Amino acid sequence: MPLPSAAASASGAAVTDPVRVMIVDDAVVVRGLIGRWIDEDPALAVVASHRNGRLAVGDVMRSNPDVVVLDVEMPEMDGLTALPLLLKQKPGLVVVVASTLTRRNAEISLKCLSLGAADYVPKPESNASVTTSPEFKAEIVQKVKTLGLRARQRAGRAVRLPEAAPAPGTRPTTAMAHAPQPQRTPFARPAAQPGRISATARPDGGKPGITTRAYSNVAPRVLLIGSSTGGPQALTKLFGEIGPAIGNLPVLVTQHMPATFTAILAEHLTKASGRRAAEGVHGEPLMPGRIYVAPGGKHMVIGKDGHDTVVQLNDLPPVNFCKPAVDPLFQSAVPLFGAAILSVVLTGMGHDGAAGAGVIAKAGGSVIAQDEESSVVWGMPGAVAQAGAASEILPLDQIGSKIIRILSGGRP
C-alpha cells in the first residue's frame, strides 16, 4: 500500500505544513540531488542544506527542521560528532544517517543509531552512482516522509497518517540496496483471524477492533525475531535483557539491513547478550544458545538436513520488497516447530512478518508484537496486531521480561 498523500489525513483534514528537511553532505552534487527529490514531494520541503556538521549545528535552531539527512564522512565536523550536538539543541529531531557500504561506515552508522539517530540509508559508493540509483532516491524520500510525519504526529503538529509498505512497482529499500528488481510476493497480507480482546496486552492505546490470541501451551523450542526501522536499537535492548535466558533454544533474527551491516549487528548482539551471535551460514545446524542473524541480501529460512535442523540461505526474489525478509523465516519454521514457536515482531515500516505471524498463530505458536508508542514506526508490528495474529502487544521495555517468563516455564 503506498503512502497516503500528505495533503489529507486519515480523517480527511488537510495537512498544510510539509515536513521540514535539512540536508548535510559535503558533496554539492549529493546535496542538490537529494534536495530536488525532497522538493518534488508536496509533503516535504528542504529548509536548509549544509556541507558539514559544524554548519548544520549552527543553523539547526534557525532553520528548525523536522528531519536531518546526515552524511557520515565530512570535513570540519563529521556526522558522528554532529549528531549528539544536533539532538541536544533540538530534542525530538529525526536524524537519518546516510553512509556508503563500507565496514567502517556501517560501524559508524550503528553507533549513530545508539546515540539517537532514527534510521540509516546506505549510499551508493560514488556520486555518479547516486545520480543513477532509483533505490537510493526511493529510500531517502520514503524514510524522510514516514519518519517526519511520525515525529510531527507525536509532537501534535500533524494528523495521524497510517504507516505503509512501499508502493507496488517501487524499488526495494534499505535491506535490498543490492537486490534484484522486486517481484510480487507470494506471501499475502493475512486477513484478520478470530481471537480474543486482550485483557492484559496493550492494544496500542485501546484501538478498537484489535484482538489477541491465547499463548501456546507448548514450551518454546525456537525464538524468531523480525524487525526493520528502529530494529537495531530495539534488538540491542532486548538481547541485553534476554541473553541469560536463551541458553536452551536457538534464536533467529531477520533485520532489514544490507550486507556488511548485518555482520556488525551480529557483533553488537554478541556483546549485548553474552551469547554467540553471527550471520547464519547455509547448512549449519541450529544449536541452543546461539543467535543467527539473516545476512544482508539473502533470505534465511529453517530446513532439514537428515536428522539435523539447519539454517538455509537462498537468493530468491525480495518478499514484501525486503531481502532478507521476515515472512520466509517465520513460515519455514512452522512445519518443524509448530506450536513450539515463540516469535516477536518489532518496530519497522511496511507489513513484513504479518503473513508469517498469521501462519505461526494458526499453528498454535505465540507471537508478540511491539506496541505503537515504543515503536519508531508501527508498520510491521501494527500489521501483525491488526491481523489478529498477536498473543500480546507490548511496549519494548516489557517484551524481554515476558520472553524470560515464558522460557522459564511461567504462565504468560
Automatic annotation (TrEMBL):
Q: Where is the active site?
A: S228, H256, D352
What InterPro entries does this protein's entry cite?
CheB-like, CheB_C, CheY-like_superfamily, Sig_transdc_resp-reg_Me-estase, Sig_transdc_resp-reg_receiver
Q: Which reaction does it catalyse?
A: [protein]-L-glutamate 5-O-methyl ester + H2O = L-glutamyl-[protein] + methanol + H(+); L-glutaminyl-[protein] + H2O = L-glutamyl-[protein] + NH4(+)
One GO BP on record is:
chemotaxis
- Molecular functions (GO terms): phosphorelay response regulator activity; protein-glutamate methylesterase activity; protein-glutamine glutaminase activity
Q: Which family does it belong to?
A: Belongs to the CheB family.
Tell me, what does this protein do in biology? Answer: Involved in chemotaxis. Part of a chemotaxis signal transduction system that modulates chemotaxis in response to various stimuli. Catalyzes the demethylation of specific methylglutamate residues introduced into the chemoreceptors (methyl-accepting chemotaxis proteins or MCP) by CheR. Also mediates the irreversible deamidation of specific glutamine residues to glutamic acid.
Q: What is this protein called?
A: Protein-glutamate methylesterase/protein-glutamine glutaminase
Q: Which organism is it from?
A: Prosthecodimorpha hirschii
